[in-house]
Design brief:
about 170 residues; mainly alpha
Amino acid sequence: MSAVTSPARQASSGMSARTINRIVIYGLLALFAIFYLMPLFVMLVTSFKTMDEIQNGNMLALPHAPTFAPWIKAWSEVCSGLTCVGMKGYFWNSIKMVVPAVLISTLLGALNGYVLTKWRFRGHTLVFAMMLFACFIPFQSVLLPMATILGSLGRFGVTLQNATGFNFG
């Protein structure tokens, strides 16, 4: 008999270091996820509470009698700016702007990905490097020049339908 034990015998005697390592990693990931998602949980739970429950001060407690009244009020009669028309119009305006933007972005991204992976042309690595570099530019640094250019062209505040002539909604 040798002093070396077989791997099957080691696994049956207890948890391996790899298993313990995975338990610790997934435990920490779950803890960070709970910490990260806690503001969203508090916001949603609080939105279903009555004003008396909110003023009691227990943020994490579930509502005793959930109510949709704040949601209905926000949808139909909340004051945003100078008018009190609710969020309904703003919601549909956001949908009209986001859906075409996502579709166009997805289409262009798929075309770029296809061209950069399947076609080999002179400078394809430079084009890829420039696109990768552009991903690291914060949008806030692009927003001000973009707004200035759109303002000088008379296109600031114009919806996508008016700018392109296409009706997406």
